[in-house]
Batch of 3 targets.
Target 1
Amino acid sequence: MNLLRKLLSRTATTGLAALALAAALLPWDWTPWAAWALAAGTLVLAWREHPELGPDRDRFARGVALAAIGAVAAQHGALPAAIAAGALIAVVGFEPLLAVAVATGHMTSANLEVQRDRTWFTPRAVGETISASGFIFALGAGGSLATGTGGPLWIAAVAALATVGAAGAGAAGALLQRRRSAHAGDQAVISALEALEPQFIVHFSGPPGSAYQLEMWLPYLDRLGDPYAVVTREKTHLDAVRAATGAPVVVAPSMSELERLLVPSVKAAFYVNGSALNTHLVRFGHLKHLQLFHGESDKASSFNKVTAIYDTVFVAGQAAVDRYRAHGLDLDFRKVGRPQLAAVATGPRTASGPRPVLLYAPTWTGLTSEFDYSSLAIGKRIVEEALRRDLAVIMRAHPYTRFNLAAARRLDEIERLLAEDAERSGRAHLWGSQAAGSVGLVDCINAADIAVCDVSGVATDWIASDRPFAVTDMAGLGERFTEEAWIAKGAYRLDRDAANVAAVFDELLVTDSKAAQRKETREYFLGETAGDAAVEVFTTAAKEAYRA
């Protein structure tokens, strides 16, 4: 269903626009109003999805909708309808070029005192003006249909011509600015950053839905006490990042914009993933480049040799150091534990309500089969075993799970199973947005008695609780599993076909024969500090790294 909703959201505007144009060409008395309503609906949907300039995904649909409005309006005023439709279709068609012009000297930012010389030719102002002109055209066309006259259309024509004129004037001014300086940047943002005097910046780039990688670190970077700025390369992350910190956030899509943001006070850059765009900043040798990553695991990505480009790599414990060295990388490591786990309740398993609770947290399928550690193929078997034993289930899937159609289908099947069981039995399961979003992983860990997870960062985070857990052996390594997934030394191995699922749950719920080994594994991966002491370890190491 989620995939269907996404598909509908991506095709709704195009479909409505096509229907509007078809209705506009039909000869029946009622079709002009149908065409008008469908076209107006297209414009409203496009505006709601993309309130600012540059909705490239909907440019075609908006152009078709404007053509449909023009076709029905031409019956009562051919000249003003042609002027309005032609002007607006032209400005929508040239929107990508206009977006470049608008972006000249204007970087989107948040939590930053920016005083601009230019207040009208901004992305939001231009985008809203184009949308408003489209709505005026739709209203004028509706008025002409209702009155049978072309008068209302002349108002729309004037508004459309004014929009084209303003966009042209603004674009011309931006072109002149670009001719005066090849890398003008946004002086208002640059001046605001210079006044702030940030000691470091945090560089972030990632696909939609990946802002959690940065969000997990922001509270601890805030605790460092020094001014800093977050630089994200994609605008899609702005709202999430702005909500997670009071530090300035600047969107810098281009390399030249990024370069101008390196004001003299900046001494270092932090990174939270291995994005290819990190190289745009790593090339600046006068900065210290500090890699935090966003989780600690035995995945192959956790010993990628590209990590050598950073000056210092922050890791949770000795396990990460040994893992890198085992694969030929001996870097400047800082062992800081996982400050995000400070609130994890540590201790023996205790009752969590009327029945034990299982946290099932499968990882995503990765971009290639080499990095596919996901257990969703056997996820239904795992959940069915939990239900057979009268457990409540917290189903927390990786945020990228639905990037893969097969994984999304399996996740939907498990969530349907939980929904049906909750209705039938009254067991308090959590899944989907209930087990994510505002409910963090630490909250899920604290609410669970046992866990089943994959080779992923969840396993390392869970071990902070010192409660029983199982790790899935999806590569079918058998007895060699612990040689590749060191975290599994403190866990119970679940076969790739889930053939031993009953025996694993017996260990999790009854026997727990690895309790002593789990404590050793916990210290190996996370170090000896826990709680607020782990936060202090990180803040001390971070300050030493960027102030040196």
Note: The radius of gyration is 28 Å.
Target 2
Amino acid sequence: MMRINSSIRKLTTIFVVMFVAISGCLVYWQVVKADQVTATPHNPRICQPDNVPLRGNIYDRNGVLLAYSVPDPNACGGYTRHYTDPSLAGLIGYYVAGGLYPAIGLEAQYDAVLSGATGQTAINNLVHKILHTSQVGNNIYLTIDERIQKVVARDYADYTPDPTGTAFINHTYPTYPTDRGAAVVTDPHTGEILAMVSSPGYDPNKMVDTLTHSQNPTSYYDQLVKDPENPLLYRPTQGLYSPGSTFKTVTLMAGLDSGATTLDQNWDMQNAYKPWAIPQTADSPGTTVVGDNLGYGKYVFHFPVNTEFGYANSDNIMFAHIGANVGQQKWLDYTKRMYFDQTIPADLPIAQSHVLQADGNLNFANFVNDAYGQGVDFVTPMQMSLVDNTAANNGTLMRPMLISKITDKQNNVVQNFDPQQLSNVISPDAAYNTRVGMNAVATCGSAWHITEDNRPPTTVIGKTGTGEVGGGKPPESWMITQAPFDINNPQQVPALTIVAMRENGGEGAYSIGPAIWHMYSDIFNQNLVKTPLAPWNDPNVFCPEHNLWQTRTGPQVHGNQ
């Protein structure tokens, strides 16, 4: 009898141990390793509805629906994603359930949020998974304003360079047809991104439909990959370009803040107009800084001219000297404050812009050419937006902000996101004087024809750029801008910044300028950004009064370009 009881106890112990082991294995594979097992493309259960969370929606700042899931019995998990605005394709990206085709854009960056794999939602979904009931994801609200997004996308496409090679019938500045480029619209005081356009784009709904239902699922993707215009490149954050003379703004801010220059500093012909030959040294090759942007004998008839005049008319030689007067290490310190050659803290990945050589150094020849935008500077549109925002926000740089809040399926707020300051770049006085210089550019200098011909409802200020790329290709066309600006009210700061560019578009002002000026007009006329509008600054009155147009005997001569 004792032997039987002992055998029963041993057998019971074995069964208990086996039960615990099997239970542990089940918990391990069904809970701990469930996501990895489910995500394996070869798992036949991967597309069962209880293994595919009902993905959260993506909204704009005002609750306009931008991305959501729709029932589709022929799709993995029983749902496919739908997108309401193709101009946001590069930003939001696309998502296809099943794991065969990786998501891109925000759909990839915030996959854990949208699929409910984080926070309390993840705990709730663990219960759903054990019970084999439907899992749900969280919603994301962007800082994007869909109304402004549509304006920017439309105006960018409508006001393209003149295919004849001249921007306006009476202005013989070369422009070249191109639809490649980007635009970034921000609130400089919060860092909130209100609109972003990457051109050309693609159709995210066609992408999802093809990957889900086509017998050749990658056909549309392959077509886009082979397209020489590279529509899958998200140009605002991943495109890298020569910034041209927009980069003079970096040097102007450094010069004003450090005391190396003032707007009224006078420059003689030698230092403002004549080529600057820099000899070779042991540490640097020789170089010669050239660039007759002043138009001597056509727009400029006497010297000296001041820094404001040189910035307005994009004087390369003057700004090479200003950079040298700031000093290389101090100038580099200002670029670091604006996150050049660093990873920019942001809600989405941004390619690093740089002013340094590929080896991480910077010789003197490249430095003086960097100072006016034609050295080894290589930048994203988002990086130039940070430069623009620094001037607009009185010298304080805010973190680029794209996510405003996350909510659950019942629209309860899971997480709010607040504006964050990144750095104090320059003093408020230096920032204001930079805006005064930008007003001189847009009212009297290299962009004055844009202001004259497109008369916005308020004063728009900015800096033009025509980034030479070599190889016989037309230059990159840039403008960094902000509005409104009131020359009579230093306390009023611009409410909005717009940075836009076209690849190989030619003359900066005339390739991209008309599109930007129409963006401001449409945004302010539709009251999409509520702010007091300073009156339009008439060049024909302002420029002669402020000595920003020179005269000769006879009729007045207007400012350069």
Note: Residues 47-142 form a domain with the Penicillin-binding protein 2a (Domain 2) fold (CATH 3.90.1310.10).
Target 3
Amino acid sequence: MKKNLVFAGLLFVTGVSQMTAQEKEGNIPEVTIAAKSNQQLHKTGKNVQLITSKDLEKYKGQNLSEVLSQVSGFQITGNLNNNTEPKSLKIRGGKMANVVVLVDGVPLKDVTGNDYNAVDLRLFAAENIESIEILNGASSVLYGSNATVSVINIKTKKNSQKNIEGRIGARIGSFGTFSQNALVNGKIEKFNYQITGSNEKSDGISSAEGPDSFDKDGYEKQNINTQFGVQLGKLNLNFNGGYQHHFYDFDNGAFSDGTYRGNDEQLFGGINAQFQYEKGNLVFNSRINGNDRLVQNLAGNSYQDQYSYKGRNIFTELYNQYKISENINVVGGLQYEVQNLGSENLPWGGAALEDVLNFDNTRVSTFDAFINTNLQISDFHLDLGGRLNNHSKYNSHFVYSINPYYLKNLEQYYYKIGFSYATAFIAPTLYQTYGSLPYTLANFDLKPETNSSYEIDFSIGKPDQSFVINASAFLREERDVFAYQTVDFTTYAGKFLNVDRNNIRGLEFGLKYKINETVNFGGNFSFAEKSNVATRLRAPKQRANAFVEVLPFKNSRINIAYQYVSKRDDAYYDSSTYSTQKVVLDAFNLFNVNINQKLGKNVEAFVNVSNLFNTSYVDVIGFKTKPRAFTLGIDYKF
């Protein structure tokens, strides 16, 4: 412990950073995710992927998981099934438990997840997103537990500088889908405000694969988000809140129709305060969010409650960005987090839900101190960071990262090469620790998962990203990996156990090239291979994406996208044999087309066609995949 504290102290004293400006700032994109501060995209130590507001224009009509599935290294299981099915992130051979999702730089979590805390992607409204920043690789130093494979920062729409400005939109699509959305924002002297809302309903398709007699599983979801801010001299205060609701039908499981339905709600609120001074910026973030999940099944002519979960997450952090000199910068701070989980189940033969987990008895908390520094000597840079985590149940853990890299700026181009080594850990979720009867037993002896990551990054291109080539190779060594196993073959109850070791090696390659104002193309390829068979479920070794974007006229845009997913292992429970059947799913190729057309200054129409050639394939065994589908929409700005 003393060594850890001494090391953290040395980091704080010798903290260092880069912040040079050799290019014109106008068209050079910036990100905040790499160092918790504004940083030009091409100058980050690791290769950060940025989906800009212009990029999102060619994804109109697609939901968040469909957009993310086209990012290098991303596989979203269930993304190609019915929209009511869960969407599980598998990035660089990792799982959803390895991912932290931020909204405007602050974690938004769902602690009711069985093996993850990341927020449910189905709850988001894509129309409210301004841009998405993605930092792959171990990032526990800056973002804590779970940030072992990727951090995704979703930035909501920017506030207008006018007194009032807004947008209303609507879209219709296949499977009886209708959606409406609206945004109003503005700035009045020192005050700014924003209100967004959306509503979507769909008849859907059958979730389970089966005959035409299987019922369709539809859904509806609503989103309301508010933001209010005020500038008081050097102090900037922002308050935010939101409500997300998802009401949906789903089936019994693979190849099995059912009459289940779920009702999920998420409510959150928070504050962001920034105080800027001569050489730095002091930032305070806090967010509280609660999740309610209720599952019902049709019993006779009415629905009966089957089980419910209630989760609460309170997150608070205070950190300081300080520029010691032109070549030295330091970011250091404190973080505190509290989680609670409660659950109820319907007992065998029972008529009402009964408590399984008491909300107050599952409380866990963490207190972290972190420091990240950067040194620049000519074209050489060194990122160095450490975090000390104190968990109320799993004691203390120290993680650190080292990232030397060389960045050379030429007249119009740059090139960058770097190496990083980072350690990280994942605390078990409340569900994994406390279980949820009757099928998941508690395991209070479950140990945290730890890992070490080695990565080499290379990038060459233009600072404005009109041309860029990125390449990354990585090796991750995971220890005490979580895996669910059946332990009682009479009741088929199981629990989460630690698997000794798992190694993942892989590489990523990406290209973007804007030939001229008319033609833009790009693509990516990723490879990830796992050593432990028990962790390979639904994880492909290879994935590829490509796009060609054409602007034939000033106000027209056509985007053609291609996606390849290699074969992968899968399994399902066969109710006729009472056993788990293992299968290998075939590789598949998909094409999508998106067309945008501006009609005057304030109106824009779009059409999106997914699975253009109506390809037959399997995403998850036993569940139906979406055939060719159309979405037609229109937006009006005022």
Note: The CA atoms of residues 407 and 416 lie 4 Å apart.
